[in-house]
Fold this sequence. Notes:
Bound molecules: iron/sulfur cluster
Helix content: 25-40%
Strand content: 5-15%
Largest sheet: 6 strands, parallel
Structural class: alpha/beta
CATH topology of the largest domain: TIM Barrel
CATH architecture of the largest domain: Alpha-Beta Barrel
Strand order of the largest sheet: 2-1-3-4-5-6
Oligomer: single chain
Number of domains: 3
Number of strands: 14
CATH superfamily of the largest domain: Aldolase class I
Shape: globular
CATH class of the largest domain: Alpha Beta
Radius of gyration: 22 Å
Distance between the termini: 41 Å
Amino acid sequence: MKVKLILPSLTEAKSPFWRPIKYSLFPPIGLATLAAYLDEKDEIDLQDQHVEKLKLDDSPDLVVIQVYITNAKRAYAIADHYRKRGAFVVLGGLHVTSLPDEAEQFADAIFIGPGEQTFPKFLKDFKNKKTKRRYYSRLGRTIENQPPIRRDLIKRRKYLVPNSLVISRGCPHHCDFCYKDAFFKGGKSFYTQRVDEILVEIDRLKGKHLYFLDDHLLGNPKLASELFEGMRGMGRVFQGAATVQSILKGNLIEKAAGAGLRSLFVGFETFSEENLKQSNKSQNLKLNYELAAKRLHELGVMINGSFVFGLDNDNEDVFKRTVDWGVKNAITTATYHILTPYPGTRLFENMQKAGRIKTRDWDLYDTRHVVYEPKNLSAEEIEVGYWWSYKEFYKWSNVFKASLSHDSVKHQLKHLFYTGGWKKFEGLWNILINIGGLKSMLPLLELLLSEVNNDKSLHQKLENIAHVFKNISIETK
Ligand code: SF4
């Protein structure tokens, strides 16, 4: 059987000729995970429109498309195309789970919820020509004893972070604006792999660098602790995401740093207690964000802080306060979002009841547009403030100011190179993506994620960085 797995590009990744680096980071692990349930004899083609032009003149028997809210229009158009060519088209993912009635119009079958249990069931039905319209994942959710992810289908050289992995599903918390509860409705909403299986998966991955794409890497402290124990001495460096609470509690974060954690995505989201309460983000209440940042810095862990604008208690000073806080607390990179009520979430439900949803154009649900009626600020003020915040946080004077607040020169330089490299060289990234030179950047990323507190001299490190740059220029010529 010929099977095609497709990740259509998000609306924000507009042009095939201009690709911001953030869309070439991670391979489509979800689709490669599903591919593991296919037969060895099946002819499988996995395509990610973020990094390649879709080949649409083929004739697969089965097409599986992963749908997010801002690629939904593209996904539906691709589905139409393949159905006209006689293929059986299935759709799954966050948006399909949120709006099954909408998605169903464009598919022969849809998956609701995570795919590990539904996909094998569907394949059996497909073989027996007895498919249903909808496949629900409810009982028996697990990611233990799963077949190995088909990483051989991933075009590694097209991604900066080919070694991405996900060792859990969901998260133990229940924030109102998050997709999580909607996606896992009707069954377990947080579960993990076994440590021995995770370590085997890590062993399969070439190189030093890993990126855990879990919503909350420290969400199960026992598992995380055993995992970090097992990873000690493996010589890996890794990145992931976790909550403020998990950074401040116990010594899990030290264990993570000891195992190679070098940068963490942290959901600070808002400084307002009212906003936190209203968003049901109770795990952040009464926590000292400064202390969390300090603790990470002392461990040499860089911080990608996530912040949301447009919550009901935000007023006009929220943008400056948030940027100033990030610079003062030496956050390495900041990700700002405009509050977005994704369909299926409690936030959407509440806003809809209150008549506050302004548009159902899903392309605008990209966290850069105000799609609801805000309270204290106008939509325009929020959008202007959002773009101002990015510009302000990443201006060189602030990048230098934040870098210089670290104690050691090495930490200062790492911050400077990482933040600068990330946001100041979009043109260079675009060239590298287009000429297929991304893999040359991985050694540089690994170098920037090297330990802050080791005994190598600064001189040596700088020489290493220069050497890497030299190699890149040779390879990309
Ligand atoms: S902590 Fe993060 S992943 Fe978990 S529910 Fe809240 S926003 Fe979602």
